[in-house]
Amino acid sequence: MFKNYLTIAFRNLWKYKSFSAINIAGLAIGIAACLLILQYVSFELSFDQFNKNADNIYRVVNDRYQNGKLIQHGTITYSGISKAMHKDYPEVVNYSRVEPQGPAIVINTPADKKIGDQNGFAVENTFLEMFSYKLLAGNRATALEKVRSVILTESLAKKLFSVSDDNLSSVLGKALILQSDPNPFTITGISEDAPKNSHLQFDFLTSYNSLYAGEDGWKAAEYGFTESDFWHYVQLKPGMDHKILDAKMDAFSKKYFDGNKVSGSDEKFYLQPLSRAHLYSDFEYEIGKTGNATVVWGLLIISLFIISLAWVNYVNLTTARSVERAKEVGIRKVMGGRKKQLITQFLTESLIINLIAISLAIVLVIFAQPAFNKLLQNQLSLSYLLSKGMNGYSILILFLSIIAAGIIVSALYPAVVMSSFTPITVLKGKLSSSKKGIVFRKGLVIAQFSITVILIICSLIVLRQLKFMNSKDLGFNLDQVLLVEPPALTNFDSTFISRVNSFKEEVKKISNVKGAATSWNVPGGDIGRSFNVRQADSATTNRFTVRHTGVDYDFLQVYGIKLLAGRNFLPTDHNTAFDKLHNMLINKTAAKMLGFKSPEDAIGKVLLRNQRKWDIIGVVEDYHQKLPQYALDPMIFMPAYSTNSDISIKISPNDVTRSIDDIKKVYLSFFPGNIFEYSFLDESFNRQYKDDQLFGKAFAIFASLAIFVACMGLFGLAMFSTLQRTKEIGVRKVLGASIKNILVLLCSDFLLLVFIAAICAFPVAWWLMNNWLQNFVYKIDIGWGVFAVAGFSAMLIAFLTVSYQAMKAAIRNPVTSLRTE
Questions:
Q1: Rounded CA gap, 803 and 811, in Å?
Q2: Confidence band of 215 (pLDDT split at 50, 70, 90)
Q3: Which of 423, 681, 684, 693 could disulfide-pair with 481, CB 3.0 to 4.6 Å?
């Protein structure tokens, strides 16, 4: 019997080739789009799940309040925090402090081999107990116990020592130099490269006790509550709810900070699960690899929309074809066929179509994978569907559930409909759709195009917001600025400033160079804060928090930052001794916050930064240090140099390669032994837009696919409608109806449905996008125009989709139409 079902199924697929191709293609496109998106979602949700203790590891995050206002929301805090938590609370069974040590230059001294831009962390030996980074060589239990120990990743070890997989242990015990530190580190371990789905990415790990060892060590790193430059991870007892510990953190803060007397701020600590560190990081001073939950969940919702629309289309198309198969059902029933047999027959056909569609979808995914990976700038594959996520294997289970439910539901409805035809009605040619069936199919069209209109509106608003952010004036000029890595291997001594200034002057002599400057930070990166800033002669006791950075006297000119009042720095304002610096620039926002009536009013005034006095010599225009997504920060600028200061060189767009070569020669002549590495500011700054740009592109692509799939559904319903109204159309033509009349007749019903769908979609789309835009300080207004454009676009799409079937019916010979009776 089953063999007979298969024979009939394949015979019908071959007989209606065009219909079958449309049906299978719609399903395949929907499933393929869903598979691509679920790969990405599964990868993003799998971050840090390779750690055996992932469910019990948390990172300590810190909010600071000053004058009742949140001034910092970050992952950075004081060195004593996790150690004190471990001491005070038995719930904390382990902890590790993490301190960034890069980007750094790593040197194999005997071979004189230097590799720059390496990312490292100083961590305690407990780090290897908590996290599951695999050690290929060395003793995991003791690798980071001793001072000046270092673990290298497999990739870095191979680059430095030219070793192969089978002799990695040969580098153990060897010494290497990090940056300009004259004291070598001993290699005590080789680890596998950090997995791509680890939010902590590193090339080397050093022992944390190296930070504070010796007379010249950084004593604040050992145990303290004054310098906020450290990151912490804690491990709780299995099954422990971290919110119980969070509730104890107010008492913890009062104990160690005595209100705000110790740090000048009210400190609030709480724990963030490791599984959320990648996707749910809205924190400053992030040292981990972060993603965007909005992008992930947004694309997941689109994937569900697409695959749902694909199966709705299958229902519509199969139902439309049911009219052509009505006589087949009638004859089989007259010949003794039971309803159960007919349902089994139609379910078999549905299963075959879905299996073909799934197979084709996998082929489509394989072909689309390179382009999809290029869009995401990642290397994904179908294997990621098997990855464990923050909720176990929920994505794999979700996909299999969707496939199973879709096959059953999309197959069962047409099967029940077609098996329910009354033989006498069918054989007399009096088959017509029930009112319930008509309402159901119209409801599907309204639902489909409601989703379509929502996706059109969302796409337009996302693209408009991205364009708005890209076009917003940043307050500085980032074009053609070459960023040269600082001369990290050069010692900071009494000659350092004069050497840097001489280097800048020599570089300026290159024909295509327009200026050069150094600064602690460049636009696009996080910069530090000063928490206790106020006017020295002000009666108010309020303390303010500002961003601070060090710049030289050429910084404003290179970046085109406008001076509003006072003067710029002069070479005489700089000094190698930081305690001798006393002049300062502030920006307009800082001047306003500190209580000055105007930029001119601030000139000559004295500021207290902690307890040290600084003279304001100039006020500069505000500029966006970070994306214009965020509010402008109050900033102060000190005339300070550092061996870690970036070098910004403004060049002309003519013959860039030659300019870089000339700059490199000058750089190496002034800073011998260093590595010349560079990048362009516009590229590094625009990387901040990565998640939003990905969201915009992916949203537009997959929204377009969803719209296309929805149109196929409308095409199916139009086919069904014209088949049902064949006789009516013939009669109307005989009575004198024109082609135009027939087109209006057949299209008007569908356009009405799309109009209703648009009305239903407008408030939903407004609510979604209004909430999304709340993430931006500077944002577009959602005007009525975007709704009008989306509504008109949906109507036009629907008209073009339906008009083919309508025109085909309108031009048909009425004699042929009447013969269908």
A1: 12
A2: confident
A3: 681
Residue with the two structure tokens 């803060």 = 253
Q: In sequence order, what are the residues at sequence separation of 6 or more whose Cβ sits closer than 8 angstroms to the Cβ of residue 688?
A: 524, 626, 627
Cβ proximity of 420 and 322 under 8 Å: no
Token readout for 206 is: 């050093």
Residue 424: pLDDT over 60: no
Instruction: Find residue 137's DSSP bridge partners.
Output: 190
CA dist 48 and 275 (Å) reads: 6
pLDDT band of 816, cuts 50, 70, 90: low
CA distances from 636 to 14, 55, 477, 583, 605 (A): 75, 42, 19, 10, 14
**CA–CA dist 382, 387 (Å, integer):** 10
Range with lowest mean pLDDT among 292-296, 430-434, 768-772, 778-782: 430-434
Reduce the DSSP state of residue 300 to 3 states and report it: helix
What is the full DSSP assignment across 477-488?
--TTEEEE---T
The DSSP call for residue 645 is -
- For residue 123, what are the CA distances in angstroms to 86, 99, 113, 143? 16, 7, 25, 11
Specify whether the CB–CB gap between 492 and 575 falls below 8 A: no
Q: Which two tokens stand for residue 752?
A: 């009405």
675 φ, ψ (degrees, to nearest 5) = -105, 130
In the chain, % helix, strand, coil (3-state, to 5) comes to: 50, 20, 30
- H-run or E-run covering 118: strand 113-118
Are 311 and 30 in contact by the 8 Å Cβ rule? The answer is: yes
How far apart CA 104 and CA 204 sit, in angstroms, is 10
- Per-residue confidence band for 494, with pLDDT thresholds at 50, 70 and 90: confident
| Separation of first and last alpha carbons in the chain | 34
165: helix, strand or coil: helix
- Tens of pLDDT, residue by residue over 586-611, are 999 999 999 899 999 999 999 998 78
Task: Kindly report the number of other CB atoms within 10 A of residue 33's CB atom.
Answer: 27
For 641, phi and psi rounded to 5 degrees?
-110, 165
- 159, 175, 185, 180: which is closest to 109 by C-alpha? 175
For the entire predicted model, the pTM comes to: 0.84
Closest by CA to 363, choosing from 698, 24, 40, 28, is 28
**CA–CA separation, 3 vs 9, rounded Å?**
10
Q: How many CA atoms lie within 13 Å of 804's alpha carbon, on the beta-carbon side? A: 11
Tokens standing for 285?
């001073």
DSSP H helices in 656-783: 656-670, 681-686, 690-724, 726-734, 739-773
Domain ranges across the chain: 1-47+290-431, 56-276, 445-471+690-821, 481-688
> Containing H/E element for 71?
strand 69-74
Q: CA distances (Å), 428 to each of 230, 423, 696, in order?
A: 84, 8, 55
Q: Is the pLDDT of residue 1 over 60?
A: no
Phi, psi of 521, rounded to the nearest 5 degrees: -135, 155
**DSSP tag of 349:** H
Main-chain dihedrals φ then ψ at residue 317, nearest 5 degrees: -65, -40
CA distance 553 to 637: 11
For residue 678, the 8-state DSSP code is E
Three-state SS letters, 66-127:
ECCEEEEEECCEECCHHHHHHHHCCCEEEEEEEEECCCEEEEECCCCEEEEEECEEEECCHH
- Please choose, from the candidates 194, 192, 200, 179, the residue with its C-alpha nearest in 3D space to the C-alpha of residue 103: 179
Percent of the chain with pLDDT over 70: 84
Query: How many Å apart are CA 749 and CA 769, to the nearest integer?
Result: 30
User: Once rounded to an integer, what is the mean pLDDT over residues 182-187?
Assistant: 91
Tell which residue, 378, 385, 389, has the closest CA to residue 275: 389
In this structure, are strands 612-620 and 92-100 parallel, antiparallel, or unpaired?
A: unpaired
In the numeric block, which tokens belong to residue 161?
């020592």
Distance CA 319, CA 233 (A): 58
What's the distance, CA 419 to chain centroid? Answer: 49
